[in-house]
Amino acid sequence: MQEFSYTITDPNGIHARPAGLFVQKMQEFKSSITICRAEEKVDAKKLLAIMKMRLKCGQTFTVKAEGEDENFAISAAKEFLEKNL
Q1: Among 7, 19, 41, 44, which one has the highest count of C-beta atoms within 10 angstroms of its own C-beta?
Q2: What is the dihedral of CA 13, 77, 43, 50, to 10 degrees?
Q3: Domain boundaries, the chain
Q4: Catalytic residues
């Protein structure tokens, strides 16, 4: 399993457009990818699940990937978040 933590810097937090693009990117991978914050854990390949987390600017969450392409999935997730959020 690979994971990393990320703190949102976008003043709007994770809103529909970047969340949708993130989900599309994560769906390219076979690995199981989750987003975790405190007790909450959601599938990073499901838009509504991410939107329900209501992640705001300044909040930190963890992205975890487990599976055959987990290294690529984590790299792609980290790159996407750094460029877009």
Answers
A1: 44
A2: 10
A3: 2-84
A4: 15
Q: What is the CA radius of gyration of the chain?
A: 11
Residue range 4-56, pLDDT digits in tens: 999 999 999 999 999 999 999 999 999 999 999 999 999 999 999 999 999 99
CA distances from 70 to 23, 53, 64, 82, 84 (A): 15, 23, 9, 18, 21
| CATH top-level class of 2-84 | alpha beta
Phi, psi of 72 (to 5 degrees): -70, -40
Pairwise CA distance, residues 40 & 30, whole Å: 22
Instruction: Please give the model's pTM, rounded to 2 decimal places.
Output: 0.93
